[in-house]
Amino acid sequence: YRSLLQNNGIYLDDNQWSAVETTEGPLLILAGAGSGKTRVLTTRAAYMLTVKQISPKEMILVTFTAKAAKEMKARMEIYPNLSKQTLKQLMVGTFHSIFYKILLHHHPDRWHSSKLLKMDWQRDKLIKEAGREIDIDEKDFAYDQALTQISWWKNHLISPDQVKAADQWEEKVQYLYKRYEEKRTNEQMFDFDDMLIGCYELLKSDEHLRARYQQRFNYVSIDEFQDINKVQAEIITMLTEKSNNLCVVGDDDQSIYGFRGSDPDYILSFQQNYQSAKKIILNENYRSNHSIVSVANKVIATNRKRFKKTLKAQYHIENYPTLFYPYDEEEEATMIVNDIKKRIESGARPADFAILYRTNTHARALFERLIDSSLPFVIESDGESFYNRKTIRKILAYLRLAQNEDDMKAVPDMTSALFLKQNVVQDVKAYSITHDCTLVEAFSYVENLLPFQLKKLKALPKQFQTLRKMPPEKAIQYIESEMGLKDYIKKQGNEGNKMERGSDDVRDLKVAARQHETISSFLEHVDHMIAKYTEIKSLPPSKEAIQLMTIHRAKGLEYDHVYLLGTVEGNLPHDYALEAWREGNDNPLEEERRLMYVAITRAVQSLSISVPMMRRGKQTQRSRFVREAQKMISKASSLNT
Ligand code: ATP
Ligand code: MG
């Protein structure tokens, strides 16, 4: 079979092959990025199906993201002698998809009729309702962080009553958790965590069913095992208790979901949990050229909590990663787009490119340059356009009213930025009719509010007159400092969402606004971009497009040319990790370094790391990760435009 594979262009080295042949019993494959872990997993499955004649109905292949599952399915199609029929019967999927199927199968009435809280805003809505019921003041409470905490408890199988709150805040969240769960059950809703918990409880409580699934899932293989969390690990333990046929593959250096409760200890202690486990280490990197591999090795070596391993590159091509220093986000985007254009002109395909960043908001400038360039691209994200983000919408509402004092659609956003109740919106509308004036003028007639609120509103019509004449960047500054938005932005910042801050968004909005001379031309641009964003999101996934995604989403994938945005202190590593590090906790910083390692190791041929000198209107410092590997990175800025 091995030579048959070779004849089909599928090579495996001896270590990889020995993993493929180990089909029975527990097997641990621990290896660095690009060493062929996923290839081993798929080849092993193919080997079991064709050579060992194991039925596809006895196997599952599990991974963590839908994109990775899709990729794995596609990789299964290259093997000789595997019929479409067999592949169709083979279960390849994410934990969630597989466990949800089980739940639907056994409790169709319950799970079909319940509603999945699929989008972030749905969970957001539910938790805020729960909060109101227990008198949590919405403006002062970090709901995002509370949701993360609740999800962490759920994934650790800790029920509301079992929580041991560490401080006052956690005590409050524990309360909220209880209420959230009650509401969720009463209203027949469930979130993604409930799929896992539901499956865990089902298998735990029903011995017959458990025995059935132990047979059904006689051979379990899991990719990216470093990302497993408690509830997933418990389910897998139950399923493989009898057969012991569990093959796990992973890299502790790529564990980047700690904040969501995944625990690399499971991979590191695998041999203790499965005493007879065979361990195979793969050291060769088959993905990237050796310059990229040496930078990756160098960066990750600083981490202390890791299983030490050094990757050796198979491909000895010298092509050191490029550092480039754009002035700001706009120039960063321009340089990247121009570089991609040049490479496409000399033969590369759009699909060979990936542009990686920390969070989706960072893609704002890039998105706009790509739209201008008419290159094909896709964004991997569930998120909204930058211009639809909470804080941004509020500011845009002011600008819209400056441009058109009767823009009714903008009023609710504006009043909520001033922390006014929604009935004020109706009042304003009524006053504008009874006094025959514009909506903006009507603000000065509003009654029945606290004196300080009335004072703010009375000042508005005049402020809007001033605002209207300003260039957009200055206008945003004025809205922020003079028209009452500062409080709102500050509250957003305090809302504790560690990854995102309202004020960061506002700074980026100013960078965007700077490109325009008038408010109306800026708003025109904004509306165009919102429309384009919706359009691009609704396109079917294209194979022939430049890929834009977060580093988290890129895990397990590879691209010929990779660009990494915003490699500066405060972003990568993120401020909150640096804060923790200064307080003596270096776990978050180690996770940031792993994030950098994942980003670097996606690149096959070329890697370009951007270190903008200004970011969100502030001077930057290059990332410590860049500093640590600077000697190995070529400074020649080949991305000059
Ligand atoms: P990651 O840690 O990023 O998930 P991985 O360890 O899963 O990486 P793969 O994606 O399986 O690595 O392999 C990396 C690349 O190397 C792929 O393009 C794969 O096809 C190729 N590859 C793997 N093994 C070999 C080999 N023995 N000979 C040639 N190419 C190989
Ligand atoms: Mg992989």
TrEMBL record:
<feature type="binding site">
    <location>
        <begin position="31"/>
        <end position="38"/>
    </location>
    <ligand>
        <name>ATP</name>
    </ligand>
</feature>
<dbReference type="GO" id="GO:0003677">
    <property type="term" value="F:DNA binding"/>
</dbReference>
<dbReference type="GO" id="GO:0016787">
    <property type="term" value="F:hydrolase activity"/>
</dbReference>
<feature type="domain" description="UvrD-like helicase C-terminal">
    <location>
        <begin position="290"/>
        <end position="556"/>
    </location>
</feature>
<keyword id="KW-0238">DNA-binding</keyword>
<feature type="domain" description="UvrD-like helicase ATP-binding">
    <location>
        <begin position="10"/>
        <end position="289"/>
    </location>
</feature>
<keyword id="KW-0378">Hydrolase</keyword>
<dbReference type="GO" id="GO:0005524">
    <property type="term" value="F:ATP binding"/>
</dbReference>
<keyword id="KW-0547">Nucleotide-binding</keyword>
<keyword id="KW-0413">Isomerase</keyword>
<dbReference type="GO" id="GO:0033202">
    <property type="term" value="C:DNA helicase complex"/>
</dbReference>
<comment type="similarity">
    <text>Belongs to the helicase family. UvrD subfamily.</text>
</comment>
<keyword id="KW-0067">ATP-binding</keyword>
<dbReference type="GO" id="GO:0005829">
    <property type="term" value="C:cytosol"/>
</dbReference>
<dbReference type="GO" id="GO:0043138">
    <property type="term" value="F:3'-5' DNA helicase activity"/>
</dbReference>
<dbReference type="GO" id="GO:0000725">
    <property type="term" value="P:recombinational repair"/>
</dbReference>
<keyword id="KW-0347">Helicase</keyword>
<protein>
    <recommendedName>
        <fullName>DNA 3'-5' helicase</fullName>
        <ecNumber>5.6.2.4</ecNumber>
    </recommendedName>
</protein>
